[in-house]
Every structure is written in C-alpha cells, then in structure tokens.
Amino acid sequence: MVFKRRLTRSSGKDSLTEDESISEDRMQPLSKTIKKSHASNQVEENDTVFVRLLKTSGLTLKTGQNQNQLAVDQIVFQKKLFQTLRKHPSYPKVIEEFVKGLESYIEDSESFRNCLLSCERLQDEEASMSTSYSKSLIKLLLGIDILQPAIIKTLFEKLPEFLFEKPNSDGISMPRLIISQLKWLERIVDGQDLTTKIMQLISVAPVPLQQDFVTSLPEILGDAQHADVANELSDLLMANTAPLTVPILDVLSSLRLDTNFLSKIRQLVMGKLSSLRLDDLPVIMKFILHSATATNAFEVITELRKKFDLHHFMLPSQFLASQNKLKSKGGASSSGSQENTSKDCIVLLFDVIKSAVRYDKTISEAWIKAIESITSVAEHKIFDVAMLLVIYSTSTHTKKYIERVLRNKVRLGHIEKHLLENTFCVHDLVLKDICPSILSLAQSLFHSQDPSIISFGSLLYTYAFRFFDTYCQQEVVGALVTHVCSGNEAEVDTALDVLLELIVLNPSAMRLNAVFVKGILDYLENISPRQIRKLFYILSTLAFSKQHGTSSHIQDDLYLVVRKQLSSTIFKYKLIGIIGAITMAGIMEGDSIPNSTQGRADLSSDKCTQVTSLLQLVHSCTEQSPRASALYYDEFANLIQEGKLAPKTLEWAGQTIFNDFQDAFVVDLCVVPKGDFPFPVKALYGLEEYNTRDGIAINLLPLLSWTFAEDKGQIASQEPGQKLVSALCLAPYFRLLRLCVARQHNGNLEEIDGLLDCPLFLTDLEPVDKLESMSAKERSFMCSLIFFTLNWFREVMNAFCLQTPPEIKGKLLSRLKDIVGLQGILEKYLAVTPDFVPPLAHFDLETLNGIPHSSSASAKNRKKTKLGGIKRKADGSKVLSPDKLSKEDDTECDTELSGRSHVDKESTEMEGKTSVSLQNYHAFFRELDIEVFSILHCGLVTKVILDTDMHTEATEVMQLGPPELLFLLEDLSHKLENKLTPSFAKRIPFLKNKGSWNVGFSHLHQKSTQEVVHCVVQLLAPMCNHLENIHNYFQCSVADRLGGKTPESHIMSSCYQKLLQIFHSLFAWSGFFHIGNRSLLYSGLEVLASRLKQIERDQPLEDLISQSFNYLQNFHHSIPNFKCGLYLLRLLMVLLEKSTAPAQKKLKIASMAKQFLCQVWPHGEGEKNAGFNDQLHDMLCIYLEHTDSVLKAIEEIAGIGVPELINSPKGASSSTFPTLNRDTFVIFFRVMMAELEKTAKGLQAGTAADSQQWKVKAGLCFPWLLPSSPLATWHEIHEEKLLYWNMAVRDFTILINLIKVFDSRPVLHVCLKYGRLFVEAFLKQCMPLLDFSFRKHRDDVLSLLETFQLNTRLLHHLCGHSKIHQDTRLTKHVPLLKKTLELLVCRVKAMLVLNNCREAFWLGNLKNRDLQGEEILSQNSQRIFTVECEDGRTIRISQSMEDDDVDVSDEEPQGGDESGDTSD
Question: What is the model's pLDDT at position 1045?
Fold first, then answer.
C-alpha cells in the first residue's frame, strides 16, 4: 500500500512547512521527495487501445518495478473507463481490443506483476470517495461488469504458467496473487463459469496451492454458487485426498448449505476421525459442530464422543509425560517442540469448542445431555469430564444443569478419582485458563449435604493446586480457608483434609501460602476438637519443617496460642491448648527423627528439651482438672501409639508415667483402705490367689467415694503439695502407661502384667432384693462404680490382647466374662436410676454437646505399691483427691455423678424397670481396639467352660461362651457399620448431635479402611467356625429354633444375626471394586470357599464366588428368625452383584426368599412390630425382584394366599404364606403393586420393526426357518407380548379388586398411586402393541380391553370414594389419575381410527358410582363410545365427562341392548 503525504492548508493555498516536511520524510514510506523521484520514472508509451483508454480514465502504466499511478479515485476510474468503453464507436468490439491489449501488456512478467499489485494513488486522501487502500489494476478491471468475464478468462489462461514456479525473492507467489484478485468482488457476472474454472484449477494445482485455492473459495464465490462448489468439494473429500480434508471442511463450515448435505458430509468425516492428525482436529471439530442443528444436535454429539478419543492423537511419550508430570507448578516441557505443538493443537481444539458452546445453546445442552445419558462407568472418558468443566466456564445458562449432572454422576460412582486426576493431568493447559470457574464449581459442591459430592469438590481443589500455577494455588488455599471458617461441619472437615493432602503433595508451595492458613487461628471456637487437631497438624507441619527460616513467625504464633489456651480456666479453651500442644510435640519430634535408627539416637538435646518442656507445661496446666488431665493422657497416648516420640523423650515420659500411676491408683492388697465410705470395701475380681503381702489392687472405690463424701460436706481442706487424683483418669492413664511400656519394650508388657489379674477395691455389686430402698445418691454411686470398673476392664483387654502366652489368653477370657456379667448388673441398676448420667469415657467436646455435668469427686490418702513384680516404694507422700476444684470443673469438666439423665427417657419407659439397653450408653464406655477381636479364635460351646491347663497343646481349645461371643460381635458390627458404610448412607439426622456418629470410634478411625478390612478378613475363619456351631445348635434344637423362648436360644439367634450382619458389612464394602483391594476380596472369598472343599491356587474369582455362595446358602435350613433370614439373603445378594454368571444364583435367592415367606416363624415376630414390617417389605421385594416370573409370583400370592386370608378367621393368616395376615396385607399389597408396575414398564412396546428384528434374529440363529416354516413369522413376537400383557392385566385385576375387601386408607392410597402408574405404562407400552395386533389378534385385543375396562372403572369409583370422604391423602392422586384415564380414551380411539373403525364411534350416558357401587348423584353423566367391528361385534368405551373413566365391552349385535345397563 502507498502512503500519501498529509498537507496543511494556509491562506487558501496548499503549503507544507519545513518541520512538517521533515516529519513526513521520516514517517511515510513514500514522501514528497520520493514522489519527485517517481516523476522521472519511465511511463508506458504504447499507443494501444488498452493503454490509451487507461490513461484517458486516469491511470498511468509504469515500466519496470514501478507502481502504476492512479490520478483519480478508484470509483471514478472505473466509471470513466466503463463509460468510455460503452460510448466508444466500436463497442462492443473495443472490449475485445482492450483485452487483447491487456494480454499483450502482461506477457512481460514484470508488467503482469505490476498489474496485480496495488496502484500508487496521486490524489489527496481527503478527496478520495472510496476506501483508503489501493486496488490493483486487475482488481479495478474485474469490478467492471463488461470486462469481468474476459479478464477472468485471461487470468485463468495465464495462471498455469506460474503453478510450479517458486516464489520471487520478495516472497510473492504469483498464483496466490492472481487468485487474490478474485476475492471480495462486488459482483460476479458468471458465477457458474467461475466455479468451473476454479475447480478445474484446483484439480491440477500442486497440493500447497490446492489448499490455498480451496480456502479462498468462500471469499470468491457468491451464495448462489455455494451448493455447486460444495458438491465438487464433497467429491474431492470422498476421493480420500487427505491434504485437502481440513481446507475443504473449513470451507464447508463457511458456506450456506442444505442440512441434509451437511449431515452426509458429517457422517463421512466421522468415519475418518481416527485417521486424522492432531493439528487437523480444530477445523474438523468446527465443521462437525457447525453442521449440527437443534433437531440432531444430541445425536451428533453422542456419535462424536463415541468415535472421538483424544488419546488416540497423542504420542505415547506425550501421554506418559502428562502422567509423570511434577506436582509443583508447571515447568517447561522436556519432550521438545513436538509436544508443545500437540498441546497448542489441543488448546486450539478446546477454543473451537468454547466458541461453539458459547454462541450456540443447543450445542452446549446437547453435549451435557449426551454425557448425562452415559450409564456405564467404563464409558466415561477424560474428554467428557473436561467438556463438563469447559462448558461450565463458558456457558453461564447451563451451570445449574452441569452441577446437577455432576452430582448424579458422583452419587452413582460414574466419575472416579483416577478419571478426574487424568483429566487435570492431560488437559492442564486448557483447565488452567478456567481455574476460577473450577473453583466456583468446587465451592458449590462443598455446600452439598452428600459427603460423596463434598469429596468430589475436594478433589477439584486438590488437582487445581497440584497442576496449576502459583496464582491458582493461592486462590485454592484462600477458598479452602474460607470453607474452614464457614462453620459447616462437613465443609470444615473436608477443607482441612484437603489442606493436609496439599502439604504432603507440595510442601514448598503450601509454605508460600502459610499466612492464609494461619488466619484460621482466629476461628478456633467454631471448630470441633477433631478439626482443631487437624489444623494444628497443618500449622505445625508448616512451622517446624526443615526450612525454619521461612516459618519462624508461625512458630511464635502457635506457642502464643497454646500458652494462652492452656492458661484458661474454661475447659473449652484448655482443650484447644492441650490438643494443640500435643500435636505440636508430635510434629517437632517427627521432623527431628530421620528414617534411620541412628538418626533417632542422634536427636538433638535442644529439640528434646523443647518437647519435654512443652509436655511439662501441658501437665502442669491440667493437673487440677480431672477431665483436662484425662484428655491430656488420651492425646499423649495417641502420640506414643503413632510412634512420634524419640527414644530419649520416651524414656523420660515412661519413667514419669510409671511412677505417677503407681502413686495415684495402685495400693497394696494387704492394706485395706479405711474410712467413712458409703459401702464396705472389698477386693473383687482378682484372677489369682495372692499373697496378701505381695499383692496389689486398684484403689477404685476410695477414689470415687470422695465425691460422695464431698456432697455431705465431710471433706477436709486440701493440703499443700498434695496431688489431684480422680477415678476419671484411671482408664486414660493406664492406656498411656501400657502404650509407653509397649513402645519401650517392643510390645512386651511383663513389667505391668500384674495389672491384668489384680483385684479392685470395690464393694458387693450384686443388687440387693429391693434396689428402690437405696437412696438415689447411693444408686448413682453404684452405677458410677460399675462404669469405672467396666472401663478399666476394657482398657485391660486392649492392653493385653496381643500378648501370646496361654495364661494371658485365659485371663483375657475371664475379664471378658467379667465385663458381660457387670453389664448385666449395670442394667439392673440403670433400670431403677433413670436420671443417672454416667462418668465420661471420652473427653472432647464432641461427646458432650447437650450433656449436663456435675461436680467432681475427691479421693483419699493411699500409699505407693508395685505393678507386677515391683515392690511398692514406701515414702511418706500423700496423694489426695481435692476438696476444691476450679470453678470451670464444677460446671463443665467432671461428670462422674449427676442427677440428670442423658439417655432417652422414652426408651427407658418402654423397656420398663427390668430392661435397659446399654446401646444408649455406648458413648460412656471406653473403646475396644480392633485387635481385641483376636479372642474370636477361641472355640464356642453353649456353656462357659474354661480350660484350666493353659499349657497343653493337643485337642483342647480355649472356650468362648455365647454371651461373650455376642458382646464381641455386637461391638465388631458397630465398628464395621461406622467404618465401611458408604458416606452417603451416614447422614446425621436433623438436630442430631454433631459428631455423635463417631463417638467411641476414635481409635478405629486412626486406621485406614483397608487395615480394618484386612483385620476382619483375618477373623473370617473363626467367625465361620462360630457360624457353623450355631447352625448345628439350631439343627439339633428345632424346638428352640421354632419357639425361641429360652435365654440361651435367644442369645444364639442374636449371635447368628450379628455374624451374618458382619459378613454383609464386609463383602458389601464398595472399596472391593478398586483394583488395589482385589487381593482382600480374594482372601475373604477363599476363606468361605475353603469351608466346603479344598480350593486350588489362583482359582478364578467367579469360582470363588460360586463356592462361597453355595457355602452360605446351606445355612438357610437353620435360620432361627425372620431377621436372620433377611440378612442371609442380603449377604447372598452382595455376592450376586460380584458374579458374572448370576442367573442360577438369582433363582436360588428367590427360592430361599419364598421359603422364608412361607415359613411359620417363632411366636413374637410381632405383626404390629414396625421393624418386622420393614423386614417383610424387604424380603418380599427380594423375592419378586429375583424370581424368574414376577407376574406368576404375584398371581400366586394374590390368587392363592389372599383368598386363604379372606376365608380365615380373624387373627389368622394364610396357610400358604403364613407371613400374610390382616396386619401385613398392606405390605404385600404395596410391594405387589409396585413390582407389577415396574414389570409393566419393562415390557417392550410392540412396533412395526419387530418384523425386521425377527428376520435378523432368525437369519442369524435359525436360518432354516425363513424359507419354509409358515409358523415362524414375526407375528409370534406380538403373540408373546400379548400373552405377557394379558398376564399383567389379569394380575392387576386381581389386585385392584381386593380393595372391595380391604378398604383401609393405606390400601386405597397404594391403589391410587400405583394404579395410575400402571395405566400410564399400559398407554406407553401396550397400546402400540395393540395398534399392530388388532387385525391379526382381534379377539385377544378385545378380551384384553374388556378386562382392563373393569379395572379402570373401579379406579373411577375409587376417585369418587376419595371425594366423598374428603381424604386429602387420597384426593391428591385423583387429578393425575383422571388425566391418565382421559388419555386412555383418546388413545383407544386413535387405535380404532388406525384400524379403520372411526365411523363406529357413538356417544351415550353412564352413571358414576362410589367404591360400594352406590350411585353418585352429584356427578355429571358419562360418555359412551360404541365401535362396530366387521363381524358385527360391538366395543363400548365409556368415559365420565367429569371423572374420565373408560368402559370397553364386547357385545353381540342381535342380543346386545345399546342402552345397556346405564348404571354399570
């Protein structure tokens, strides 16, 4: 382009100042000075018509490389030349002469080049009437209609000369320059000819020029030529010209084409997707999305996502590089320019998609719908997840839709963790650009009530931090801190877990954002103790890492917060200090302990001093508060159990703990405490005969009695130097002691084994004849004493359960028997002490929300003694319980005794004074460790018989009685329910105490789920032994199984149930689907399979499942009660889900379920028991879902069992189905109606395509049927479907008519609800079948409609009954039912019209009736439609004009009365 000089106007004349002249010389390529030099350029002096007319019109041709000069405006030039040619005397011959002159002139390549380049404009820019750019001479001539065809012809004749020439030194390609003259012409005179010439040129041009020529087509041709050129291009595309595929598709995207044509091209492109290159994908994707319309967008996207796999276009090295990407912020790629190019192509691809979904709503909605329709986990791709995130960020109107889709996918487990991780890994560059939208989505998911959805949101945060840059990492941390401070329990927990994971993934990046995390310290009052522990772990990890220089300010803040909270007199704040200090100590020790043993020994004395000083600070700040001390002991014990203390620190702690425990709780057995105790002191529960001089005892009752004495005002003032001792600290302190000793001696507890069998100073715990004669204070004292004793025994079990000597195993069994016996005694005391609040067993706030607290207790002097074989140390120090505690302890801390009730009073009243469930008190018992259940390896007999000879090897086994077995199984069952139950199933009810679900499971949650499952798998063999023993017991004791009255049989049946429940919880664990946990599943199944026969090594999974299934099904003969049978079926169903050949197993489950339904169960499986009704509902559902014919099963129950019930006396049940009685009828009716409706929906609708389907199937499977057999026709398919529908309608008729006998509101409600659903299924599934079957199977269709008409009439009567009684629960279903009946009338009419019976419709009147058949006078009349068929038979269809009923009848033409019975 030529730049013009800019002139200034002064005094009416054009003048240019010197400064302006210099400026123009510097800035413009062609200044005034240059133009003066041009004046000397040589001008073409040819006297041809061509040159002369151009000069006359204002254009001067130049020779050489000089630009042609245009003295006038371009439009003026074209107009002058056009007028000159038209007015020329020799017109139109002058045009031919003009063109010949042009051809002669452009024979010189330089002259031709000048004609193709822009002209130099000599007139002022301000005077220009057209655009500011200059056109070439050829372009100007093409703009003149009378010259255009000849010029185009000349150009295309000239162009082949340059096709195979290289570009000039200035980089100009002559073919491209020639084609550019044809672009953006205002008018094309002969578009068809131009199209033909261009396509001929494309066919002979080299590939690079072909691509350019094709790409230029939309800029050259007009709309009229789009269809023609598209056909030509499609031929090229089908000719498999790979280099032209992308240019052609790019052009087709820009043309206005027919939808069918685009669909054809799209199908062709879809077939070539796998053979294309990655850099071609953006254009191809643009074409596919551009060709989609509102009507076919869903089908296009569905096909696209099935055939498009982005991994196919990535090199293996690129994919591996993505998989092995560093967790830190993205650095430069090491795979070279090829990988960078691939990434750029992927980014361009997503840019094309973003543009499509942003401006086309149908594309975005169709894409989401296509992903939503995927039902298989394996079908979900990385590209699907990326697309959901991209559409979420691009299309604002689909955000809610995408959130709903994601929530559903996450709930169903369709989007797994590894899929989301791979999405971020492969498409990090794409997703990084939409980071704010991803964080917004994660924040929205965090607000969900479903834990699985919250977990998915946490993964979004985690991967955003892991794969994105520093800025995004800062945004992630800020968002997580916001969640922590939100106050929502689930949000806080998940956000802290994410922060913990981020510290492990990228500690250096987290250290840069530590200042944001530190801000959470201002919100400590709003988070729970468990969350406080996580927060201090995070901050301590950041503060005490190896790079201390960057985190010293965090250390100072942590020390400041801990000291401040520890010095508080309010327990809530002291708790924060205790947890924070212990967590800090663990991190400080762990950071200073290298992996090697030598490194542990070389722990710096400075670090050890810091840790011990911190622990001493906590001890001194908590010693005056029993509850704070107990919490400190538990936290300290957890720290030791995790192995975070160095040997030097552990040695210091061990000596201190050992001595303090002896001084506080252990006394000589020979010295019986004396004092004013509420009950006489006795040494009880000793397991060995002790020499009174050497024996020891736990001084429990004297410690507890100080509380009793304090309430009477008999406590002396506390002496200086006396230590505070409370029975509340006994169990926590012992746990701390035994963990410390075990850690120091590699698990050996010989140093304290005397505590296993030593007695306790108690009193006679067996209740007297009249407990009511005791005062409330005395009963509360006895309850507290028993609670403390039980918790002591529980901790003893935890301590010694891993010890191997037989003597210790025998003592553990004795302690277990003591626990079971004490629980029975405790239930008796609690039955008469309903307002008692037990002493605490867990000491954080989560346990105590809403629990009242009482004042603490005092204790009395006692002396030191020994633990195990250590003699007591006789010093004169006194150890007293305090008579005064802090004000905080009086109100919040100590709850050893109380006058108010924590347990549910209603349940206590229901149980009565003789029965109390200790399940309501589970939060007040110390937790049993998972290792305790190794006791299950002992054998089972019906009576407790302990083997006194512990050293014999032989055939004798350790014996475990039924009560003790039941105690262990109940605890294990609760643990598995808490740990293995899916998160979405553990929603805490509204107003339920936060954290109550996890109270009493803190030790369990310190282990991973895989560790817990491994422990339970190890227990499968002994549990199978117990299951088989119980099975044999009930096989031999049929009377006990049927009667179930004896206490022993009741315990055995409870053990049976718990064992099945444990098996079900184990094998129903969703983690078995993960490939890493398959070995655990194999191990568990091998245990079950080996019970029948010896299994082979590396046996297939399906064989193990089948053998395990057969083993478990053998137990159905000895099932003692209905609930056990239900758990057995559920267990078998879990195995069925994992089987690949489920057919036979389903039939076996159905057979067993039917057997349980037809069995007479022990008296007391209460008909009025809500739990039994739920179990019956589940059992019946299992039977109908697994039977091979649901319709036959429903007909058997409704046709045989129900009539037996109707004919039986009141209170009796069906003889065939003893579980069916008048109280359980509504359960049977509801399940049968629901399953019938579900089955009807599953019956396929008949269509005309059945013929073709049958031919395909017959041709593949039975080809000999096609040519010869007349019976093997597609009509058999319709006959089979009609048969099924006849059975379904017959079952519906039987069920619907039962409301005449059983007319209770629940039954009528079920009938209205599922009756409408069945009619809807009939409309959608059966009516299309009747359309195609009416002519061939007219009688069957008429019979089906007649039967169904009776049912719809009864539904109409039921609507009237609901209106009369004004029952809102029933009437809310009436409008929808009426609408459905109206649709049925219209649909039947449509079927008759389809079969040429339209003229036979006739309108009459029918009356409405209520459920009993009485006329409803207030209702309007009905319409009667009568259809006369070919053979003279009449079909009458009746419909209430108000209530929309349907009446279909079949009448004979002679005997039928058209008026009929108007009341029916």
Answer: 65
